[in-house]
Design goal:
Length: 420
Amino acid sequence: MGVSDRRLLSVLERLLELGAMPVDGILTSCADLIADAIPCEKVDAFIYDTATSTLIAVGTSQTELARQQRALGLDRLPIANDDPVARVFVTGEPYHNGRTHQDPQQPRGVIEELGVRSMLAVPLEVEKVRRGILALASKTVDAFSSDDLTFLTIIARWIGGLVHRSELQQASASHAAEAGRRLAAEELITMVAHDLRNLLTPISGRAAIMLDRALADGRTEDIEACKRLLAGLARVASLMSDLLDVARIKQDMLALRYEPIDLIALLSSIAQSMALPSIPVRLETELSRLPIVADRQRLTQAFENIVSNATKHSPHDAAVRIQVRVPAENQVQVTIVDQGSGISPEIMSHIFERYVARGPAAGLGLGLYFARAMVSAHGGSIRLESDGSRGTRCEISLPLKPMPDFSSRGDPTATGDAAA
């Protein structure tokens, strides 16, 4: 084994010994290792910043020339300046020059203030994506050999792997922290919802008594005030029930009460009750009735959530359509179509998750989460289609008969039944 091979093996072994640390720590440690292996005054690991179109020395060897570089602000290389080292990132071609002071494209600060005479730079790729460059600098003329270029190219590939590992570890830690924060928030919401719902019961009772007294005395203004109060309390109670249902779904405690129902009659009632003066809701089907075995309350909640979502995002005089057909012997397909602004791809990928809303008028973002949970609990599936500009199509497939010995499907976000 030659000196060059032993040098490479030694550096690779030391790279493998690097423990878990952030990307900047990885790059700084790698820069120091390279500076020990190749005699030079400075090693930089530049990472490209897309926001500023600039290569930034995230990792730099702990050397005097590196400190001078930072003091002069030469640790940032704007791509627009088109200097030879920055061009390595643009083209992917290495740069090897032993007489940089004769290169007219070299920045004057590098030549005159830092006194650099030799430079070596190679691309730095992470998972086959060019993310930056590794650059060496020396005050000595012809300081780097072709072996040094080969050595740096190999090391760059290993460093790319270490950066990838570090980013995966950071992403995993961030995900775990976010999951912990969400779990704590959900537990708090569940406790608050439970306590508030208990408080609403006596308040609603007193409001009902006040309404009875107002009716008995014929006090018109008080009657209207009590009705508005009871309606508001009913909305709050419904919201509290929705929040408590989140916990039931996650704990696999969503029990269904099956009974024979007429799906056409149920959807017709929903269409009539949820139509707005400016946004009609139309039931379109050739079927006069369709017997189905399901939980009436839960299925109604699922369809109401979807239709409500559609009417909220529909323009005036643009009808929401509910289409029903039976594509197979034991299956019914219900499609709800609106002509709204559509759903952006960024939101579409998370649309069935908890607390994901389509806009400021979308409430808590629980409607589609519950709809999916209810449909899944019935052994069905739900799918959304939208081009992100106009209109959304929600397709629900349900079995006409319930699955045997089946009451709940748990948290729907744990299944593969996702939006298209």
